[in-house]
Amino acid sequence: MQPSSRFGSAPRNRAIDLRSDTVTQPDADMRRAMAEAEVGDDVFGDDPTVGMIEERFAHLLGKEVSVLFPTGTQSNLSAILAHCGRGDEMLVGNRYHSYHDEAGGASALGGVAYCPLEVAADGSIEPQQIDQAVKADDPHYTKTRLLCLENTVAGTAVPLSRMQEAAAAARRNGLAVHLDGARLFNAATALNENPASLAEVADTVSVCLSKGLGTPAGTMLASSSRLEHSIRRNRKILGGGMRQTGILAAAGLHALDHNVERLQEDHRRAAALAEFLRNLPARAGFKVRLATNMVWFTPRPEDFAPLGEFLTAKGILVGLRRPTMRIVLHLGIGDADIKLVAGEFGNFYRDET
After folding, report:
1. How many Å separate Cα 106 from the centre of its chain?
2. Whether the predicted pLDDT of 282 surpasses 90
3. Distance (Å, rounded) from C-alpha 90 to C-alpha 84?
4. What is the CA radius of gyration of the chain?
């Protein structure tokens, strides 16, 4: 299978990969923790290292339980199916990953209808939209059961107050709330909030270990104990029951110890790169947006392909989804890399202008 054109292909000897924070690789210490992990059969419930991370993560997010999943897409879908039955409806932001980038799984596999709502500039959903979208108890309509939130949204950290307003609207309409917090720790870092404060707005919270935290795979789904049985059953139905998963759990525990506080370094480097790009010649006609560990660069339409080809030829990979290039900072990128990337952008626009 060919990789999506929005990301492009990695050359064999690539220099700097900025397509996503999912391209990170475990360092020597994380690999050592994985190799030394005590394991068991997690389907039988006897992998001790999985038990450790599930207990620790639940406590970290202020929830009663958490469950380890192989992927964030499966974690989100398992949560949705725990809240909704066939013929029910979920409200979700029209730019949120669970609606836009997960292949319609809730509908295809769960019979759940999507009701997409316009997302505000700060990544939030207006409470009034939620009030208006909830269906009346009428046999002509689906039953609105769930509000799906997200943080961060395309890198933008949604303020806690805005999440609370949306969640309050859901509660007064009798809805459950799920939070896709794939990059929740990036949001907490940017907002200077406790992760548990952000998680408190939702009944279920999905957090990815393999993005900013740098593990090879894994996502945690935190919830109340009331939902645990349904979540674990859904994971099994969706093929997420795994065996000696303590190897991945050990990577996650190492990441929680070593890779959370350092997220601020990714944000700092993203800000430095964005500032450099903004100072390129104004006549180049581009736009730059900074969002936590992401820089969104929109060149003139006629420059998109030539710039992408130029960077790739220099061993610099970025997300290539027209009309905007996504540049994601992560633990595999240092200050020297940022200097090199900035220099090549400068070379392109100096030659072009």
Report:
1. 18
2. no
3. 8
4. 21
